[in-house]
Design brief:
two-stranded antiparallel sheet, 5-stranded parallel sheet, single chain, 7 strands
Length: 292
Amino acid sequence: MPLILISGYPSSGKTYRSIQLVEFFNSKINAANDPRISHLSVIHINDQGLGLSRDVYREARSEKDARAAEYSAVKRALGRDTIVIADGLNYIKGFRYQLYCDAKAVQTPSCVVHVGTPPEKCREINAGLLANDGQDGGYPIDIFDNLVFRYEEPNGMTRWDSPLFTILFDDENPPCEEIWNALIGTEGELKKAKPNQATVMKPATEPDYLYELDKTTQDVVNEIIKWQKEHIGELGGQVPLGKQSVELPASPVALPQLQRIRRQFIALNRQHNLPKTRIHDSFVDYLNSTFG
């Protein structure tokens, strides 16, 4: 059943908004006469429930492990009878895209709820949490500043961030009814996401599929590195790749970053059996979605 991705700055009130959603969904389920609704359950996944401290965001390795823990928990929870609320920073576009693909693979709708508290207000809230030893949730100042700097705001124009619901700090409640209707349906008719070719899990039947997947993506990475060497000092730019191009960000993209994105793409498509002719274009689209 539906996946709700909560996203926002640190100390923006994500867990508070998530609890509001949990309470609303449980009330709708308890009041439902339709057995298809009444048997649903709500699962709330967050750092505290996974036993993750704020310090995991200090180092890249521990943060990666924390994301892996959230990803595994969400993937395990996705099912026909559950509404999953993934309450975390979810600030990386590529991570939201990955969860979007997993939801599509099991034919369940998803949405993103952006807790739009301004960074200045988040800083004020975070300072209060740090000053109160009886409360949990404050981020060390250096981690807070780093996470705010790296935050990639959801964009409702992209398919993996839509439908997008934004909750402003002054809003008393989230748009709970609108979210319910978008994911469950207005008439109690459970919505189902139609899987596309990129998310239907099928065995890799084409000969040498994995070899082509590895080789084609590596060739694209090599072309990007080569282009950057030939255009040292330029901020961003378009790397021509056949009929398509990769739009690079203003800061140089290092080889380790490209290889990390490449490994993510391979992991997503290892068993998806993309046509060989589509691997190149799909990887270019994935790069553009990550850099965009």
